[in-house]
Amino acid sequence: MAELRLVELSAATIVAVNNMSLKPGQEQYLAPVSYGIAATVINPQTSWQRVVLDANEVVGFVSANFDPEASEEHFRSVLWRINVDADDQGRGVGRFAVEALLKEARERGVDHVDVIYEAGEGGPRSSSPGSASRP
After folding, report:
1. SS3 96
2. How far apart, in Å, are the Cα atoms of 42 and each of 32, 39, 50, 63, 131?
3. Cα–Cα distances in Å, from 71 out to 21, 48, 67, 81, 84?
4. How many domains does the chain have?
């Protein structure tokens, strides 16, 4: 594995992000990334959307929001979505993305990141039982 790196979501990467594959059963937890982005009102001043690259290949995506003015506390710093291509799951891509998110949170002076997910067998919680969301 080449060294993983993050880039901002852009017109150059969104098609590859939308075409990332899922393992069987995971599709119930995830609509295409662009649908999720369109379904929420993204404030470019508070959103944090990054693509994980391995060399020049898109292997993951993470979307978060940092809005200290949000009316609900759990929306002030929140991980909205993270997905890793099926072929790259288990290689540390998700951990890399979460660590980068937590670093961003620390740099913003945030002491935690909330996570919103759909519970279920084979869902996001079962894939990362030891993950923490504290910066």
Report:
1. helix
2. 16, 9, 14, 10, 26
3. 35, 19, 9, 20, 30
4. 1
Strands 57-66 and 77-84 come out as antiparallel
Task: Round to whole Å and give the CA distance between 77 and 113.
Answer: 5
What is each CA distance from 63 to 24, 46, 68, 103, in whole angstroms? 23, 11, 17, 14
Residue 104 forms part of a structural domain: yes
pLDDT in tens, 47-74: 999 999 999 999 999 999 999 998 888 8
Averaged pLDDT score across all residues of the chain:
82
CATH code assigned at 22: 3.40.630.30
Element counts in the chain: helices (H) and strands (E): 4, 5
The closest of 113, 90, 120 to 29, measured between CA atoms, is 120
Question: Which one, of 51, 50, 53, lies nearest residue 2 by Cα?
Answer: 53
Rg (CA), the chain: 14
